Amino acid sequence: MSAVAPMSRRALTVTAFLLLTLALAVTLAVSLGPLDIPAGTVWTIVAHKISGLGDASGWTVSEEVVVWQVRLPRALLAVVVGAGLGIVGAVTQALVRNPLADPYLLGVSSGASLGAVMVIVYGGAGALAGVGLPTAAFAGALLAFGLVWLIARRGGGYAPMRLVLGGVAVGQLLAGLTSFVILRADDEQQTKGILFWMLGSLGGTEWRLLPLPAIGVALGLLALLARSRPLNALLMGDETAAGLGIDVARLRRELFVVTSALTALMVSVSGAIGFVGLMVPHVVRLLAGTEHRKLLPLSALTGAVLLVAVDVVARIALEPEEIPIGIVTALIGAPLFLYLLDRRLERR
Amino acid sequence: MNVTVDTVSVDLAGTRVVSGVDFLVGDGEIAGLVGPNGSGKSTLLRTLYRHLRPAAGRVLLAGDDLWQRAPAASARLVAALPQERATDFELTVAEVVAMGRTPHKGAFSRDNAHDRALVQGALQQVGMDGLAHRPFTGLSGGERQRVLLARALAQEPRVLVLDEPTNHLDIRHQVELLALLRGQRTTTLAALHDLNAAASVCDRVHVLSSGRIVASGAPAEVLTPSLIAEVFGVRADVVTHPLTGGVLIAFDHITPLP
């Protein structure tokens, strides 16, 4: 019996370690910056804001504003977006049965970029007056999703190849349009803003941006966890999955909708942050295995830790200037990823 | 549980690949599906594990239409060993076999002691119980195949559908697998390339040629030199097996038929 006991102890250890690391990372993220605030003060301010307890004389007003209005919402959004990217990465890899897939493979981020760029360049005038950037990005993402849906639906079954080719083609089309709009922008400040957005940034996060992606990621994780066993089966192939009693076309359709909706939510609040969705599931597979009941929650946690940490670097590396987060994920992520890949090859 | 293939036809991309196939697999019988490459064996099997819907005709399980059931309900009765035998993802052997429990489990239910015992038992049956935590991708072709058979067994099916189960296996493991199937007494439909394997293990064989059944019956009645020449295009003689007393098909590997 022990021979096939699940390696749940290992998964539990990894979970506990990740939760601790996440708490630590969030604390660091709120405490570090141009104004360094001790971790103890950070948590007393947070406790005071939540429960009204504690004496407000232990810290300055600017400390309170920095912790509560600026850094905490930003760190929590990093948690949500990182978790979401980790989950969507893992599921997209199963959906198209390719370990090299990432959340942006199916074209959604290109649509979001087009929407965002339209608002940055033409915003405040004509039809786009008053449309917020997240709203426009989300609308663009939906447009891309709709196009890929129509392409993948043909021939039935949302086959991996059709999804990928549809996603890549729509992505290219929308990226072309985006580039055209950027070229027409004559303002250097605008161009810089666009570049910043497209590389991803959590700058300027406010509390009001948090609930929608947070609820989306929570519901998405639940919906995907309910499909853990079918996701496992999908890794072996469509025939295998069919033989195990799974309606494969329907499963693909559901996964496609959920992952696209999550990606759209995240990209609309943070831009297209690269590499996290590709890398995180691989890291987790090395730590705890490929089985989706472990892979999904652990990818969420790992993605959250990673993005919080990376956002700290993005904020303070060139203080007081910020670096787009996508640059940091690539600079840290690529070497780390190659190192892990090497270790895996050795282990074989 | 008996299986009736009732005038089943299958179309692939608008072309009829299987036409009007009719046969019955009795309860506990082992039926062999033989025929040359491209004769439609795999395609027909796919209608039994619900990968392909028949264009016409029905597949009946104990008289009830398989395709009228919910997908998971039919997978609790029919388990398959399809041709898919590789993956780019690192799963352990135990995780692959545990997939067999999928149709028995709810959305959030975990594997319990019963599931684990079935996985362990199935691995023992195929002689792979020492390798439960090895990565599936690191196994040889034959080992993978035995693991996938274990997955089908862990599904606790009433009907086994096996597509070339002896492919990639060395001769010893072929013999062991066929003995395992005979010992199971689970209704089995297997596509087999090896006519001697089919002759020794099957209660009945059904010969497919260009998507149609051209002969059905006990191996000794069906696998005659003239049928083998006509369907497979090779010279062969059928003799009594010196060890088992069963049918032995001796192929002429030297002279092709004109």
Automatic annotation (TrEMBL), chain A:
Domain of life the protein comes from: Bacteria
Record SUPFAM superfamilies: ABC transporter involved in vitamin B12 uptake, BtuC
Keywords: Cell membrane, Membrane, Transmembrane, Transmembrane helix, Transport
Main location: membrane
Pfam families registered for this protein in UniProt: FecCD (PF01032)
Localization annotation: Cell membrane
Bilayer topology term: Multi-pass membrane protein
Membrane-spanning residues: 75-96, 103-125, 131-151, 163-183, 207-226, 255-283, 323-341
Keyword Transmembrane applies: yes
Family annotation (InterPro entries): ABC_BtuC-like (IPR037294), ABC_transptr_permease_BtuC (IPR000522)
Family: Belongs to the binding-protein-dependent transport system permease family. FecCD subfamily.
Name of the protein this chain belongs to: Iron ABC transporter permease
From TrEMBL, chain B:
PROSITE patterns: ABC_TRANSPORTER_1, ABC_TRANSPORTER_2
InterPro entries (alphabetical): AAA+_ATPase (IPR003593), ABC_transporter-like_ATP-bd (IPR003439), ABC_transporter-like_CS (IPR017871), P-loop_NTPase (IPR027417)
SUPFAM superfamilies in alphabetical order: P-loop containing nucleoside triphosphate hydrolases
Key words of the record: ATP-binding, Nucleotide-binding
CDD domains named in the record: ABC_Iron-Siderophores_B12_Hemin
One Gene Ontology MF term: ATP binding
Location of the ABC transporter domain: 3-235
Cross-referenced PANTHER family: ABC TRANSPORTER ATP-BINDING PROTEIN (PTHR42794:SF2), HEMIN IMPORT ATP-BINDING PROTEIN HMUV (PTHR42794)
The protein's name: ABC transporter ATP-binding protein
